[in-house]
Amino acid sequence: MAKLAQFKDFGKKIVCVGRNYREHAAELGNPVPSKPILFLKPTTAYISEGQAIKIPKGCTDLNHEVELGVVIGSRATNVQESEAMKYVGGYALGLDMTARDWQAEAKKNGHPWSLAKGFDTSCPISAFIEKDKIPNPENVDIWLKVNGETRQSGNTKDMIFSVAHLISYISQFFTLEPGDLLLTGTPAGVSKLKSGDIIQAGLGDVVNVQFTVQS
Ligand SMILES: O=C(O)/C=C/C(=O)CC(=O)C(=O)O
Ligand SMILES: [Mg+2]
């Protein structure tokens, strides 16, 4: 395993998991998946604290999705689930910002979600979290507030597919590399944002972040 220090500048490809919490699948009227649903965001989607989330031009329904992010520590190709946690370099809190109106249109037409999920500023991210700060990623409180009001409050124990299963599954199809970010899906409570909203989000008492929404 490479040294952890190199992952403090994570920022490589972003692999996202959809519908990984039953209640979130239900709130959008979707069936519970029998295998992970995956999509990608470009690296240009990343922003860190101090940078604003920009509502993309023409989007009328920008939603927040708070998610546990897993930072990949070493190259993973076709790894067994029993070995998968060795490939975790650390963690981060991530927001999978979603243009829900564009996603709905794409779903209706059978088109990809790339614009709805991959626009600039669609991946606000916390600082890197050392692996030992989250000894059990399957039991972490995850929350998000908008203007001080709680909108999402969940726990990663409710994920349908575990971190180990996700790494193993994804690595059967494409290689995960050091610095890649895996966003593991959002719990229920996604909602519409407007310009000027202030988002606060956190993983238990390990990390919290704040981002402002701008038009
Ligand atoms: O299928 C939908 O309508 C929406 C799914 C998502 O946006 C999936 C996620 O990104 C998620 O569950 O975190
Ligand atoms: Mg998501």
Automatic annotation (TrEMBL):
What keywords were assigned to this record?
Metal-binding
Q: Which EC number(s) does UniProt give?
A: 3.7.1.5, 4.1.1.112, 5.3.2.2
This entry carries the following GO cellular component terms, namely: mitochondrion
The protein's GO terms of the molecular function aspect are:
acetylpyruvate hydrolase activity; acylpyruvate hydrolase activity; metal ion binding; oxaloacetate decarboxylase activity; oxaloacetate tautomerase activity
Q: Which InterPro entries match?
A: Fumarylacetoacetase-like_C, Fumarylacetoacetase_C_sf
User: Residue ranges of the Fumarylacetoacetase-like C-terminal domain?
Assistant: 13-213
- List GO BP terms, alphabetically: carboxylic acid metabolic process
Question: What would be one Pfam family of this protein?
Answer: FAA_hydrolase
Kindly state which reaction or reactions the protein catalyses: a 3-acylpyruvate + H2O = a carboxylate + pyruvate + H(+); oxaloacetate = enol-oxaloacetate; oxaloacetate + H(+) = pyruvate + CO2; 3-fumarylpyruvate + H2O = fumarate + pyruvate + H(+)
Please indicate if the UniProt record lists Nucleotide-binding as a keyword: no
UniProt record similarity statement: Belongs to the FAH family.
Protein's recorded name: Oxaloacetate tautomerase FAHD1, mitochondrial
Origin species:
Candidula unifasciata
